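Why do we care about 3D structure at all? Because function follows from shape, and shape follows, mostly, from sequence. That is the central idea of this module. The next example makes it concrete: a single protein chain, its amino acid sequence, and then its structure expressed as tokens.
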Amino acid sequence: MDERPISVNVATMLFRVAQEALNDAETHTAASSARISVHSYGGTVSLEVSDDRPPVDMDAPGADNTNHGLSSILDRIELSGGIMRAERGPRGGMRITVELDSTESK
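And the structure:
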């Protein structure tokens, strides 16, 4: 278990990602459950938020494959040198993963 402190800026950014991902699952999908996990290892902290939303045909007319809240968070994460991935499962579900330097102070 890595017991290095996480900077306030990093903790706030992780909170905002989780908040936006959960808001997205509740507001824009028919997800019935979501899960959050946070891990710290070797100076890196990772956050994963996953849900069980039904599959979406992104090529269907009227499908909205943009999430402006997550897009703005992605910009902040990239400016901080972190990475963010958002993946849809073939049978539905969404998983958002973020990795940041736990001591980043920008």
